[in-house]
UniProtKB/TrEMBL annotation, chain A:
Membrane-spanning segments: none
Classification via Gene3D superfamilies: 3.10.620.30
Organism the protein comes from: Muricoccus nepalensis
Protein name as it appears in the record: Transglutaminase family protein
PANTHER family: BLR2979 PROTEIN, BLR5614 PROTEIN-RELATED
InterPro entries: Bac_transglu_N (IPR013589), Papain-like_cys_pep_sf (IPR038765), Transglutaminase-like (IPR002931)
Domain Transglutaminase-like, first and last residues per copy: 170-241
Coiled coil residues, start to end: none
The organism's taxonomic lineage, starting at the top: Bacteria, Pseudomonadati, Pseudomonadota, Alphaproteobacteria, Acetobacterales
Domain of life, source organism: Bacteria
A Pfam family reported for this protein in Swiss-Prot or TrEMBL: Transglut_core
UniProtKB/TrEMBL annotation, chain B:
Limits of the DUF403 domain: 482-792
Alphabetical list of Pfam families matching this protein: Alpha-E (PF04168), CP_ATPgrasp_2 (PF14403)
Source organism phylogeny: Bacteria, Pseudomonadati, Pseudomonadota, Alphaproteobacteria, Acetobacterales
Family matches, as Gene3D superfamilies: 3.40.50.11290
Domain Circularly permuted ATP-grasp type: 80-439
Residues forming coiled coils: none
Matching InterPro entries: ATP-dep_Glu-Cys_Ligase-2, CP_ATPgrasp_2, DUF403
UniProt protein name: Uncharacterized protein
The species this protein was found in: Muricoccus nepalensis
Superkingdom classification of source: Bacteria
Amino acid sequence: MIYRLRHVTAYGYELPVEMATHLLHLTPRPLPRQRVLDAALDCDPPPARRTEGIDHFGNPSAWLYLDRPHARLTVTAESTVQVTAPPPLPAATPPWEAIRALALGYAEAAEFLFPSPTLPPVEAARAFLAPYFTPGRPVGEAAVGLIAHFRDHMAFRAGVTTVSTPVEEVLRRRAGVCQDFAHLLVTGLRMLGIPARYVSGYIRTRPAPGGVQRVGADQSHAWVAAWMGPEAGWIEMDPTNSLFVADEHVVLGWGRDFGDVSPLLGVILGGGRHSVTVGVDMEEAASVSG
Amino acid sequence: MTAAEASVDEMVDGGGRVRPQWRGLLGALSSLPEGGLVARARLLDRAFEEEGSAGLLPSHAAPGAAPGGRGAAGRLDPVPLVLDGAEFAALAEGLAQRARLLEAVLEDLHGPQFLLGRGAIPPELVFPNPAFLRPCCNGVPGPFLHLYAADLLRGADGAWRVAGDSVVGMEGLAQAYANRSHMARTLPECARAVQMRPLRPFMDAWRDVLQRAVGGEPAGAATVALLTPGVGHPHWAEHVTLARDLSCALAEAGDLTARGGALFLKTLRGLQPVRVLLSRVPGALLDPLELGGRTAAGVPGLLDAARAGNLVVHNHPGAGLAEAPALPAFLPALCRDLLGEELALPSVGTLWLGDPGSLARYAAAPTGFALRAAGEAGRGAEALSGDPRGWAAVERPAASLAPTLVGERLEPRPVALRLFLLHDGAGWRCLPGGVARVADAEGRGGEVSKDVWVLSEEGAEIRGPAALQVPALAIRRAAGDLPSRVADNLFWLGRYVERLDDSARLMRATMARLDRAPMLPRDLAEVAALSRCLLDAKLITEEQLPTSGDDAALRRAMLQAGRKGGRVHRLTGEVARLVEGTRDRLTGDMHAAFTLPLRDCRAALMEASTPAALGAALGGLVRYASGVAGVAAENMVRGGAHSFLDLGRRLERGASVAALLGHLLAEPPARVESALALALELCDSVITYRTRYLHLLQPAPALDLVMADPANPRGLVFQLAAAEALLAGVEGGGDPSLSAWARRLRLEGEAMAAEVAGAAEGATAATLLSPRLLALEESVGALSDAIGRRYFTLVAPPRLLGVDTAEAPARGAVRGAA
């Protein structure tokens, strides 16, 4: 499946911003299941300096430095990405209790076992998942059960939470958006000793003919990857849509929580109050003429 | 080793014999005159008291300023800790190995992480550790350690053990040097009697390291900067001293800016590049864009400058990981693994409780250990709670005892030794000295320190390597690159000291009249006029103005002004804060002259309960202000720092004279004589007037003296002419519009005096000046604001975007909803 992506972020400031530095995670990450055919970033006004690199987690990142006064900033990220479905969940996975000890031997998995800056341990998150982690149950099987659990117990509702809503509150409301569900699932899995990543990216919201309408308001999406042992590796789960990721998700990058992969983080001097609008277009390249 | 075993005595061996390395010192001490050591100890205490000024700072300016942070409470014991040369050499070698080991560990953890993969370090020590800064793993080149400090304790078995590693704060180096110079001054007989190794080569080597790091350019000015958390930090004095000894700029985060992939210091002349940053700030606070994520401290873009190769940070921002309290448990194996050597210098027994065997050992005897968070330096607990993997247990060892002056006699007290190491490019070298901290009878320590004397070994080469060849310096006459913040602080220091002076003179004149009994109608009129000036200077409120002979409220207000919460008291606090903030520009003598009399004045003002006592205290303030001006005039090189101090004073005095005259002359012409008398008194011009005009008081000559006479340093035009010249001479050429502004004000002052001189009715002409003088005062204030905008770059604090959306509706958040 080939997708065309266009992600526009526009800031407006009440007063001119004197200086600004921005850290961007807006370029799709090359992966075995995801080929990035082209990718471009545009910044208006043009920055005084721009650097690109790979962050600690291996995600493409870009830095913008603006040192002239500006009253607005528009960042446009465009890319074409070819996505194939990852291998299916193996039939046999280790019992979930064994995962923690296994993970400690793999630094790339161990890193995601621990609480992170915005995701401290929350007992209620563990309890929310616990019914599926019965003694000795293979971790893959538990995951299949709990992903359905989200459909039955959590309601997608935009506008009731913000990027900094804590997991406790999401659980109290039993409602939120993709980011809240991802944070809840990551927190619970880590407390059960299962390494969990926060994945940032996009989901196709306009269904293929005969397909199912997915939830998402044509904006960024977030889901979770859980480590299920050295053989299965990382399995991606989308709690918002209660499914295992196939070929409808495009990955920007991953980290411990939203803070590691915020699409656009900035430090500004001046500016007064600000407004921001975000627009994402994701289309199947086949449906684009030419 | 447990606390129950007997502690080793540093001076006396098990058989009661004095150890050889102490004999020279003891000989010198015993030949001091009777009671000599106690007297010398008092001298040391006084020297420290004069140096420290923490007691003067307003409490809000010093959050968390520990009294033991070598402020007023710091004390130096007159008996040093003596180390035998061979013993020190072994310690230095052991610590050099430890520094190499920590460097190798940091390099791996910020790179391939082999040590985690093969289980040599548990992931628990690294991944949840707030000092593990992931953005430092990518492209911020090492080395990680340039300077390193270690705390050591000698156990009951006589062996030294490392009790702590410091790679971020590394406090105490400046103290080691200060202690040494105090000892040499106070106990010269002992310093001469003992062949000890000098501290100087270490500092020379450090300067050479910096010189090499910045390339061929002289390492002065802004090419090297020491980053301090600021004036409220407990170790501010240390940062000031180090910056001065290394001849580098002292900067707070707000003084720095990153542009185009490089770091700069904001100075009056513009942006000066910084190539080496000696950071005394935790790594996580260096760059809010990449490292903080939640707080707007640090310099956005600092890591970019480091990645681009335009900046080196000493120590590396990621170095703090080496302070993880559980790490020592793994060092013996790591040393074999990474260096292929046995760990030469053991650590104080440390258990990581994530290991079941270690947990069992801890559980068997928990009282023998102190609990520390496994990863996070500085966090401890009384009892184990939660996941044991998050905790380290550190043995509570008995420290060795060293003779310490307690009261009038020497008693053995537990000591901890801090040593410092520098990587000089070829290898690690250890300062042959350091700081020993003395614990009190309960085992708490910190406030009393000892100098550390390392004996020279027979025939040892004590000279350092040949100094680096440096090209001859070009002659410079400019004041160097004054950071904008320092100029700002000096300007306000000048203003506030002058404001103290003006306030004191005004209050003193008022008190003198209130004391007259009985008060004549003329006294009452003068008190009324002075009260208007006091009100304008915000020294009293409307309600405290005297009404029909009732001046009780006014008297109370005068006394209140100097007490806690009063305006004069607050001004003294502001002055003290600004003196601290400019300490790196002041010599020790100047600093003492700026702080000690102020402390006495402040105390006298707070205690004054009678008009006479208040008058004496106010006199002290007037003398203090003159003292500051005199010391500054005689000791500060013209231009730069002195310009802004003087500019602040001139503008404040100019505004104050204009206001004073404006308020005093707001009288009917019949009463102008009394106004003139007051003006002469408050402008300290009575004697000059009398020598010129004897006892005849007339408007034109009096106003000429206090306004237009360019030779009267208390007159209006003198201030404005001085400001004009100072503004024209600011380094980098000055701003012509500002000096032109000052000139316009000067001409207005001259014109006013000339009008009175040319008027037929001098008294009427004088009273008509009142509104114009008050307008002139406002214009001086506006000029001061313009100077601030031009030179002090008042920038709004940085804010984070894209993390917290409190300002924007949820739908509009950067990431938004799914």
